[in-house]
Amino acid sequence: MLKIRVLVSGGGTNLQAIIDAIENGKITNTQICLVASNKKNAYALERAANKGIKNIALSKKDFESAEKWEEKLIEEIDASGAELVVLAGFLRVLSEKFTKHYPDKIINIHPSLIPSFCGPGYYGLKVHEEALKKGVKVTGATVHFVNEEVDGGRIIAQKAVYVQDGDTPEVLQRRVMEQAEWIILPQVIDDIANNRL
Ligand code: GRF
User: 176 CA distance to ligand 1 centroid (A)?
Assistant: First the structure.
């Protein structure tokens, strides 16, 4: 049984996709043992609570430093006894100390086809604004291993999504979530849980 902990910051639609995929059998051999958010009011925490999944909020401002905040997060994650950390809409950059603590054990979903529209400052709606500004015809999502370089780890899976005339950043973001993110993130977790990766 692959035990995973999911780090979130916001709405948690990627977390919901994982929860649903476990329930409908698209993900097997997997249990979410902890959901941790760096935002106390993240709706993702409610999604976890609705399913009786242990969830915690660790707000950085409750700690005297970012290092202390990360130490507590590592302590909570290790106490949860899980083997894979999934960043699902998690919007904090993790330090090298953190990423080296979990070598090749952290995966992230990024809402573009890396190496396009990624790196520091490229998250959420901004990614889609830049894609529309550049006029790309195809965008999509990427699941990759997390290392100390923002969005720099080894690419695991990608799924392309067509940009349509008249797309706004919000409409494009939704399409990328529905047609790419919510499909490839559960697929990668299932592959890892069943030793296909
Ligand atoms: C989405 O844009 C996703 O691509 C990125 O974070 C945003 C919110 O995701 N990873 P979620 O709804 O909180 O899962």
Answer: 10
